[in-house]
Amino acid sequence: MNHPIPRAPGEDWLQGAVDGHIHACPHINARRLDVFEAVRQAASAGMAAIGLMDNFSNSAGLASLAMRELGALGVEVWGGLIMEPPAGGVSPEAVRIALDYGYGEPDRGARFVSFPTHHTRHIARQENRSRAYIEHCFHVPDHGPLPDPLPEILDLAAARDVVLNLGHLSDPELVRLAELAFERGVRRLLVPANHAGLDAIDALARLGSYLEFSFFFVSHATQVGLTHVDSERHRIAAAPVDALVERIRATPPSNAILSSDAGSALLPPPVESLRCFLMLLNASGLPGEALVKMIRENPYRLFRVRAAQPSEPTAQPSHAASAT
Q1: What is the pTM of this model?
Q2: CATH code where residue 117 lies
């Protein structure tokens, strides 16, 4: 007699879910899976969409290829540009290319543009890099006008209405960059917030930013040194679960997004990583209904997932700290 395989706890939450932060692209670290496998696994779990992140290249082309080859599976796939040096750096030209890169409509072009996530002064100082290395890393000045080419990059993101990910910066840098981005018309702001302070979370949410919290930072992958943007190995600071839950609770429900940030060979595949993350947060006291909102409704709206039913998002400043 054949016995059905029991569903793992939390699998039902993955129905219609979006994971906008998957590292299935080629890398100098071993990957857990490739892009096609990531799409197939997401489809098997009933997920709606995934986003491809790559520190070394614009991932919009791989996303376009995945849609061409596997679009019939029903999983929407997008890519984008993290402006790390190997991917062209903080460059308007690199952004312009990413925004149109692919095989053609409707699956062409970056859905997000991100400031550096590793090659920043904030991260370089944590990694005890040399003074010369730190000097050449991206940072946001604490006063005065934004230096070139940042205004042009903000204008490009605003004109195309793509998600602008602010990268891994200090809290003051994040808040200032978000304010200036909003002033220049950017309405889709995403902020990695795994280590953000509560005051910064409040300020960013009031600007309409979405705050992203990821499984990677509570996982064992933080316990070893990994390569990220060059051959040096560095640990990423872990976020204790209780502290992460406090940050999520401090974020308005309509501004929080959960992701796996998985793809490293050290971690389970992204689908399983996301399920584990949901179960961990639920066991820590966050209700299932809130978690589902953070992996369905909120990322649907932010990334304009075509299957999404919720109303259009767009960031709107609110003294009630809400982005709805």
Answers
A1: 0.92
A2: 3.20.20.140
